[in-house]
Amino acid sequence: MNTETKIRATLAARASTVAVLMTIVAVDARPQSVQPRLMPDAESGRSTVVADVSDSKALGYVGNRKFLIDAQGMAYCAVRTRGPQGYPTVCLLRSVERWPDTDRFDSVWLEDRPGCEVSTAPQRHPTIAATGDGNVHIVWYGGTGLEPAHQIRYARFTTAGDLRLAEEIEPFSVAGFEQVYAGPLTGDELWQEHPCIAAGSDGLIYLAWEARDPSRLNKLGAPQPGISWAVRAADGSWSVSGPVGTPPYAQVDGRFPSQSRPTLVAGASGEMHIVCYGSVGGTQQILHGVLRDRAFSGWSVVSPSPGDQRQVSAACDPSGRLHVAWREGITGVGAAPASVAIEYASIDPLGKVAGPLRISPVGENASTPSITADGGAVSIAWVAWAPGAVNSEGKRDNGFPSDNSLVEGKLEICSRTSGSASFGAVVPLDAGPASYPTWASRSIADGSPEALLWTRAKPGNKHQLRLGRVTPR
């Protein structure tokens, strides 16, 4: 038996004996006799502790939605957390009852399947969608102990009866990783990253991701990222499949040489919006494009600015207007702290942009916004901190402008109801340390309060997922 065969046999034996367990915890979340217009600080008790997780990035990063409420009112969330095997992996949570009459969640995990090994290397941040046919779809990125290149991976869970993993595959793989990364590997080399999925009105699952290949290298020899996209049909076939040499980039050219971290939003007329950030003249800017009938419109800059724009979230209302929130900032000079704010703009169905508008208060820094929109209101949640503050990783201003550093602080929200010309007052929800708020995407607007999920750090290096009810005003 050669060395590689021995390694595979050892890993397979270890995976077969590992029982993955997640502790699901709950506190009293029964409906109150009077529904608050906005939930106060989460420590007051009017929030649910959904799960214990291994770190504050269980819901990171923004943009790729990982929390939804289906047409039956059941809440689903995909989180990344460490399992007993020592590596972060992906768990799907489902509420035991309809939202908001729920205080308990079931869980089911990814598992090793032929062609999709998940127990021997970290599995990265997931994204989630539902098509109304009794299935929940999850896409994430990861590799194996022997093949560390991050590739896009897909799983389908059936929701009838007990939540169950029904399919788990690597639908396509982008070749050339070994050509780019020839030296000793650390496990953090970038390849196929940060997917986002959304269900289209045509019954298809749309996927966008941050792709790389060996033909597009920057001056330092590192692969340049660009947004690629693919489609999964109801019969399980993919528009991209098998070994891929060059990913199907949406648009990469002299004006838009690189793009990162896309989010997908289904439009009101069958179109699919792609929003991301990308280099424009050497500055990271928020970009927007539209997929319609499987053709891409090309990129446009939402709000041209000299500031560094990243961490974008987007949502579409029933009228077809796209609402976009992002963090924008200027790096401090010398000993001065950075200035980082949450900005908002909207785009009408004809492509006309309204905004930008600063949302977070002057005098504090803010990042990682999440936005939701329906016929009644637009709501934005984010994490804020005092300028110059140092996070638990020892990084000033949460590592700005880096988008990989942990972002932690106090959780805040503001909303604008339909018919109002401005956003209301900023309301604190959790004094923190809180991280990565994410709104639930909703299959139907039934008048229920909005559901907001976030991560809360606790003493003793413990972390929790918290779920709160929010009624915009």
Describe this structure in words.
By secondary structure, the protein is mainly beta. It has a domain at 22-170 and 440-473. It is built from two helices and 30 strands. The chain has helices at residues 3-17, 177-180; strands at 47-53, 67-69, 74-82, 88-98, 105-109, 127-130, 135-142, 151-158, 164-169, 172-174, 193-199, 205-211, 226-232, 242-244, 259-266, 272-280, 283-292, 295-296, 300-301, 308-316, 322-330, 339-347, 353-358, 365-373, 377-385, 409-417, 427-439, 441-442, 450-458, 462-470. The strands form seven sheets. It has a seven-stranded antiparallel beta sheet with strand order 1-30-29-27-26-25-24, with no helix packed on it. A five-stranded mixed beta sheet has the order 5-4-3-2-28, with no helix packed on it. Strands 15, 16, 17, 18 and 19 form a five-stranded antiparallel beta sheet that branches. The longest helix has 15 residues, at 3-17. The radius of gyration is 21 Å and the shape is globular. It starts with a helix and ends with a strand. The model is unreliable at 1-45 (pLDDT under 50).
